[in-house]
Design goal:
2 copies of one chain form a homodimer. With 406 residues, chain A is of the alpha+beta class. Chain A has 3 domains: 169 residues, MoaB/Mog-like domain (Molybdenum Cofactor Biosythetic Enzyme, Chain A, 3-Layer(aba) Sandwich); 80 residues, Molybdopterin biosynthesis moea protein, domain 3 (Molybdopterin biosynthesis moeA protein, domain 3, Beta Complex), CATH 2.170.190.11; 76 residues, Beta-clip, CATH 2.40.340.10. Chain A is built from 8 helices and 28 strands. Chain A has a 6-stranded mixed β-sheet with strand order 7-4-6-5-9-8, with no helix packed on it. In chain A, strand 14, helix 3 and strand 15 form a beta-alpha-beta unit. In chain A, helix 1 crosses helix 7, helix 4 packs parallel to helix 7 and helix 5 crosses helix 6. The longest helix of chain A has 16 residues. Chain A is elongated, with a radius of gyration of 30 Å. The model of chain A has no long low-confidence stretch (mean pLDDT 92). Chains A and B meet through helix 2, helix 3, strand 15, helix 4 and strand 22 of A and helix 3, helix 4, strand 15, helix 5 and strand 22 of B.
Chain lengths: 406, 406
C-alpha cells in the first residue's frame, strides 16, 4: 500500500475498522463476578430470571389491612381493627408488618404506623387507605423476562444492584488483550526523567501517549498491556511488535506513523501486516493507520496506528475505538459562534457548554480555541465535541448541531 | 433529636452536609504517581512549571527555512535553497528537520518535505511559506504559570498526559477512608445465595446496596472499606459501627434508617453520635440522616445514613456526596411532557434525552416513568436528572429546565 497517498473518508475508515472489530470480538469474553463488573462491557443480553419483587411486600412499616375496612377513616373519625398474628387476615383484622415483609393473605394495603395507635389487641386507624397502598407488588420493579442489560452496554452501579437483586452472580464481559507500544527517539518515560531542564537540554519530550492511552482504554472498560518505550530503530520495533502481536488481540502504536525518514513503525507494520488503511480525511488525526496481522495459527490481530501528537492520537482513539465499544451520548444544541470547516475533510471540533441568558436560560455550545493537534489543554477542558462532515463548509451562529458528550 | 419529625429542606440539608465535608477534607490527601491518578480528585491547584513546548520545534517532517526566501514559490515556479547542516541558517539556506526537532537559529518556518525535492546540497521548494508555518512555538500548548488542574477537579486521561508532558510525576489527591455498613435481617449477601428460590421461600432480598454504593464511591474516585452485613441487632450494629468509625473518616449506613421497631441503625447512631439532621423534604430519599461522631482524640467522623431502598439510597448519595466531590455537568433543555411536583418538597426526577423532529432536530428531555423508590430499572436507564425546587408545582411541556447529566 502506498502510505498516506490515498486518504479515505472518515465514513469509509470507520466502516473498515468497525467491520474488523465485529469479527474480532466474536469470542472475546470472560466470565467475572458481578461484584467486579463496574464499567465493564457486557458480552450478553441479560433478561430478568424472575419478577422483582418476587412477592407482594410492604413498602412501609405499618399494618397490613383490607383497604375497604378503612374507607372514611380520618384524624377525627378513626376506625378500630382487630390486631392479629399469623399470615392471613379476614374482614376488620390487621397484622403488623415491617418494610420488606410479605403481605399476609387477605390484605390489600398497608397503613403507615404514623396513622395508627396500637392498644392491646386493637388498632386505631386514622387514615383512609386505598387498595395496593404501600404495597410493592410482584414484578413492580422488574418483570420476569424483561431485558435489564444489553450486550455491548457498559455496566453501571445501578446495573450491579439490579443484577444482584435478581440473584445473578456472574456475568460475561468483553475481554480483549490490548498492547500499547510507543516509539520515538525524542521520548523519555516519566520514570527516567530527572528534572524539567533535562527536557530542554536534550530536546526530549515526556512519553505522555502511553499513559494517556492506557487511561482511555481503562475508561472503556478494558485493560492494556504496556510495552517499554521503543527507539526509532527498525529491528527493535519489529521485535517488540511481533512479541506484542503474539500476546494480544489488538495493538496500539503511537508515533512513527507518518512517512518521514524516522517513521519506522509504519514501515515495519507495512512489511509484516496487511495495511487496511493509512491516512484519513479528518482533522486532527489524518495519519491514522489500521492493519491486520495473521498469526501462523491463522488468528487475526488488529493494529491501530496512532499519531504521536497526543490530541491527534486521542481523537483517533475516540473515533475508531472508544465509539465502537462505548459510544458517547449526543445532543442537538445551538452554536453561539460561527464555525468554518473545509470541504472534503471531516473536522472534529471540541466545544464547551455555555448558557445564553436572554429572558430564559438556554444551553448552547461554543468551540474551544481551535489550534494545532498538539494542544492538549483544550481537550482536557472540553465538554463535548462535534463531527463536521466532509460536505459541510461550516455552521452559522444559532444553527443546531449534534454534539457528543464527553 | 426527634427522628423524622423535623424534616428540613433540601437546601438546608445540603448546607449542613457540605459544611461538614469542607471541615473534614481539610487534611485528607495522599501523594500518588500521576500514572495512577485516573479519576482521582486533585487536592491541589497545579500550575505549569514551564512553557510547553519548551523550545520552538518543527511540527512536520521537512526543512527549516526563512519564509521570506520562498515568497512566490509554487509548483510551476520552484525556488532553490542551499541545504546545510548544523543548528543555524542564513539567507537562502535550509536544514532538514523531523517532527519535534528544535528549529535552527535564523529559521522561521518549516516547509513540508512533500513540497520539496532534495538534490545533493540543494533543495527545490515548490511552496510559498509564511513565517511560523509548521512551527510549534514556545508556550503554544501551555504557558508557564497557567493553571492546568484545579483543586477538586477529577483527573482525566488528558490531564494525565498534560501533567506528564510538564514533567510532573506525583500529585496530591483526595484520600478519604470510607466505611460501608448495610443492615437488615431480610438481606442476604450474593456470596451466600444458593438460588433464586431461596429468596422467595425465605422472603430474603439480596444485599445490592453495599455493592451499588461501593461502585458509586469508586466512580467518585474514592475507595470504600466494606463491612460484613449486619443483622437487625442493636448490640451487633453498635459494635460494628464503633469499629468502623475508628477505622474510617466517613461511614455510610444503609437500611434501618426509618423509625420502625427494627430500625436499630438510626437508634444506635442517635445514641452514639450527634445527629445533625434526620429527614429531608426530598423525594425520593426522605429518610436521609447525617450525624457526627467525636472520637476520644477529638477527631470528627461523619455518618451518612442512607435508605435501604436502592433508588432512595442512590439519590441521597448523589445529592449529598457525589455532588460535593464530583458535581455533574448540567444543561438547560426543554421538556417534552408536563410534569407535576408537590409544593414544599424537592423532587428528583430522572429523565432521558429525546429528539424532537419538526424541521430540524432538537434535543429535549422526557421523564422516565415516575414510580416508587424501589424502581432501580429506571435509574439505570436515565440520561440525566432534574431537581424540582420546593416552590415549584411542576413544569409545562416546552419549558426549559436544568438537567444534570449522568
Amino acid at each position: 500500500m502506498e502510505l498516506l497517498k490515498n486518504l479515505i473518508s472518515y465514513h469509509d475508515a470507520k466502516n473498515i475498522v468497525f467491520n474488523n472489530l465485529d469479527k474480532l470480538i466474536n469470542s472475546k469474553y470472560k466470565t467475572i463476578s458481578v461484584l467486579n463488573s463496574l464499567n465493564k462491557i457486557s458480552f450478553e443480553d441479560i433478561k430478568a430470571p424472575t419478577d422483582l419483587p418476587m412477592f407482594n411486600k410492604s413498602a412501609m412499616d405499618g399494618y397490613a389491612i383490607i383497604a375497604e375496612d378503612t374507607f372514611g377513616a380520618s384524624e377525627n373519625n378513626p376506625i378500630i381493627l382487630n390486631l392479629v398474628e399469623g399470615d392471613e387476615i379476614s374482614s376488620e383484622e390487621c397484622i403488623k408488618v415491617c418494610t420488606g415483609m410479605p403481605i399476609p393473605k387477605g390484605a390489600n394495603a398497608v397503613v403507615m404506623k404514623e396513622y395508627c395507635n396500637e392498644e392491646d389487641n386493637f388498632l386505631e386507624v386514622r387514615w383512609s387507605s386505598y387498595p395496593n397502598e404501600n404495597i410493592s407488588r410482584i414484578g413492580e420493579d422488574i418483570k420476569k423476562g424483561e431485558t435489564i442489560l444489553k450486550k455491548g452496554e457498559t455496566i453501571n452501579p445501578y446495573h450491579i444492584a439490579l443484577l444482584l437483586s435478581l440473584g445473578i452472580k456472574d456475568i460475561k464481559v468483553m475481554d480483549l488483550k490490548i498492547g500499547l507500544i510507543s516509539t520515538g527517539d525524542e521520548l523519555i518515560d516519566i520514570e527516567d526523567l530527572k528534572d524539567i531542564q533535562q527536557l530542554k537540554n536534550q530536546h526530549k519530550i515526556v512519553n505522555s501517549n502511553t499513559p494517556m492511552l492506557s487511561a482511555l482504554i481503562n475508561e472503556t472498560g478494558l485493560t492494556p498491556n504496556i510495552y517499554k518505550l521503543v527507539k526509532d530503530n527498525e529491528e527493535e520495533i519489529k521485535n517488540i511488535l511481533l512479541n506484542a502481536l503474539n500476546e494480544n488481540d489488538i495493538i496500539f502504536t503511537t508515533g512513527g506513523t507518518s512517512v518521514g525518514d524516522r517513521d519506522y513503525t509504519i514501515k515495519v507494520i507495512n512489511d509484516l501486516c496487511s495495511m487496511e488503511l493509512h491516512g484519513v480525511q479528518i482533522r486532527p488525526g489524518k495519519p491514522f493507520g489500521f492493519a491486520k496481522y495473521k498469526t501462523n495459527e491463522g488468528e487475526e490481530k488488529l493494529i491501530f496506528i496512532l499519531s504521536g501528537y497526543p490530541v491527534a492520537g486521542a481523537v483517533q482513539f475516540e473515533l475508531f475505538f472508544r465509539n465502537y465499544f462505548k459510544p458517547r451520548k449526543y445532543l442537538y444544541l445551538p452554536l453561539n459562534r460561527n464555525i468554518a470547516s473545509t470541504l472534503g475533510r471531516t473536522d472534529i471540533l471540541r466545544l464547551k457548554f455555555v448558557e445564553t441568558n436572554n429572558n430564559n436560560k438556554k444551553s448552547a455550545v461554543e468551540p474551544l480555541k481551535i489550534t494545532g493537534s498538539g494542544v492538549l489543554s483544550s481537550i482536557a477542558k472540553a465538554d463535548c465535541y462535534t463531527i463536521i462532515g466532509e460536505n459541510i463548509e461550516g455552521y452559522e451562529k444559532g444553527e443546531v448541531i449534534k454534539v457528543y458528550i464527553l
